[in-house]
Amino acid sequence: MGSKARKVVIVGVGYVGSTCAYSLINQAVCDEIMLVDRTPERAYAQALDLSHCMEFVHARTKITTGTLDQCGDADIVVLSVGIRPKNIQSRLEVLESAYDIHKPLIGPIMASGFDGIFLVASNPVDIVTHMVWRLSGLPRSQVFGTGTSIDSSRLKTLLSYYLAVDPRSVSGYVLGEHGDSQFPVWSHVTVGGKPLLDIIKQHPARFGHLKLDEIARQTMESGLEIYKLKGSTYFGIGNALAYIIRSILNDEHRIIAVSAVLDGEYGFSDLCLGVPAIIARCGMKEIVELNLTPAEQEQLARSGAVIQQAINSLPLAP
Fold first, then answer.
1. Which of 9, 115, 151, 286 is the most exposed place for a label (fewest CB within 10 A)?
2. Catalytic residue among 178, 188, 209, 253
């Protein structure tokens, strides 16, 4: 009778934050969602709209609005705040504004007594995740971002079209920056447990036409394509957030490509990159280090250099 309600706070309830809340409600992932926004009226309207879902779902989720100083009892705080500038070509273009927006948020959240997990969706997610980790003082297991989880999903979806299989039968990861320097780890992509590279080699008539470089480009550019056509991406990333939150609250130990603070893994330290990690009730339980080919190691090094340069441009000294 004294069990604690599973509470998720979503800071920033624009397209991504509200879609995350909608996904959590439909999947009955948590007991309570508190919405926080710099425009309280928008948070209230989103909460009211979401509350009208309850008759049509199979479990009730309490929807409230609140402030940063009410995050103390939350299990997870989702950060999905930022501006939507026009005509951007790279997520790194919003770096300066992301720093200015996020820096004032972390202090009040931590002052509330929060000791849960920060899950970052704000772009550029790798740099923002590192920023939140530094500013919060929490262990790296309690601060990570959506990273390349959505990119990995995009890769599997593209391959499912070309191979005529369900995307859930494709296994593999996109590593590195959630941005232009990301790359699929082709040496570890499998379809039904069989390496994709072996499938292509053994069935050249059926699959020899696949251009892996083109698929990698499509994977990387699909988010920008959506942005240019409708102004924002939110369905995919909203569901990715719910997927990660479910793994945390249900202690599922799923392996998900998240933006993680590295401490020696893959040869990096004090740096956030999209890598597969075991996600459980404690947060990021363990980073999974894949055996990369020399070419893949070079790609990851280039991606790490891009992120490091961006981090170095920010005043993040303690």
1. 115
2. 178
